[in-house]
Amino acid sequence: MNDSFQQPGQWHNLILTPEHRPTNEPKTHIMSYMLKNLHPGGYYEAIVQAKNRYGWNEEKKTNNVNDNKCILNYSCVADNSLGRSRKYMELSGRPGSAEFYSPKWGRSAERYNLTWKIDSYPPLEEVRLLYRRVL
């Protein structure tokens, strides 16, 4: 991809190679690519296709990207023989929701080690934990 602004209607074809994973690891491949030099306020569409030893996937996933003051809105549509699904995501720079890794039951009735993960591009400045007894 060159460093100039994208021309309307012109597709750029990139070939990305996923990391090699041992066969005992999860089968989900997470990949990303930074789209650069987008026209401010422009509306973009991205199509992702995947290939494995059995061939290319049936349907493309289309992402619509709207670049507006560092807030990106994505919509993803997947079609196959089982139906159609659409999901939306807003990229705002804010941290993601906490993903908890702690077991449901603790080892002690008085203590519980709560463990979580938060995805955030910029460093976190503050983390707030609220908890309460429910029963």
From TrEMBL:
Residues 1-22 are annotated as: Disordered. Residues 1-10 have a biased composition (Polar residues). InterPro entries: FN3_dom, FN3_sf. SUPFAM superfamilies: Fibronectin type III. This is Uncharacterized protein.
